[in-house]
Amino acid sequence: MLKLIPTPIRQYTRLYGRMTRSQYFRWLAVLLAIYVFCAWVDLRFIGPFLGYLPFEEAEEQYLTTVAAVLFVVPWVTSSVRRLHDVDRSGRWMFLAIFPLLIMYFSEDIGFSLYGYLAGGTVSGWFVDLLIDWLPWVIIGLAAISFSPVIYWSVKKGSNEPNRYGERS
Fold first, then answer.
1. Whether residues 32 and 73 fall in one domain
2. Which residue, 142, 66, 72, is CA-closest to 107?
3. Residues 109, 134: contact at Cβ < 8 Å?
4. In tens digits, what is the pLDDT along the chain, a chain of 168 residues?
5. Most exposed among 40, 45, 156, 165, judged by the fewest C-beta atoms under 10 Å?
6. Residue 165 in 3-state DSSP?
7. SS3 state of residue 38
């Protein structure tokens, strides 16, 4: 019965060791399938229960949020083990997590900046341009800083033992 549970869930707190590229991408496919299923359930069943039309985008996506919170730790730990397979430190995941947080809060940053600048005496075309483009600039910088982690995730790992252990 334990074999039916994917390895990243069984080893969700394990930050040591290695994970092969095929194991990692199968795990990401499982995560994506779970997330899409939860989003479908939210839009099809939970949304209408809360008063929205079926498949109308609702502000509240409870099941999707719960799934994202539950699977963030297994995703990070499996990504750290994937980086170990290409002989990189797991600290590089900070380079991935920080931009994701920035991308998540970029709209709030833009609205906060707009409220600060629009309420003050500063105005003009440059302020309007800054308010319009700042979230996009933040998202672009986040994507650029995320690219090494994506590259190392798709790179073939070494077959030899490295400083992070034997190949799994």
1. yes
2. 142
3. yes
4. 556 566 666 777 788 888 889 889 988 998 999 999 998 888 888 877 777 776 666 667 788 889 988 888 888 888 999 999 999 988 888 877 777 776 666 666 656 665 666 565 556 677 677 767 777 777 787 778 788 888 988 999 888 888 888 876
5. 156
6. strand
7. helix
Residue 103 shares a structural domain with residue 41: no
Give Cα 55 distance to the centre of its chain: 24
Q: Domain range holding 97? A: 88-163
Rounded to two decimals, the pTM is 0.73
Place of tokens 């949304």: 47
**Lookup: tokens for 131:** 């308010």
- Note whether residue 9 is domain-resident: no
- What domain count does the chain have? 2
Residue 60 lies in a domain: yes
Task: Classify the phi-psi angles of 155: left when phi > 0, otherwise alpha if psi is within -120 to 50, otherwise beta.
Answer: beta
Query: Own/partner pairs for 154-158, CB < 8 Å, 24+ apart?
Result: 154/21, 155/21, 155/86, 156/21, 156/86, 157/18, 157/20, 157/21, 157/85, 157/86, 158/85, 158/86, 158/87
- 75 and 134 inside one domain: no
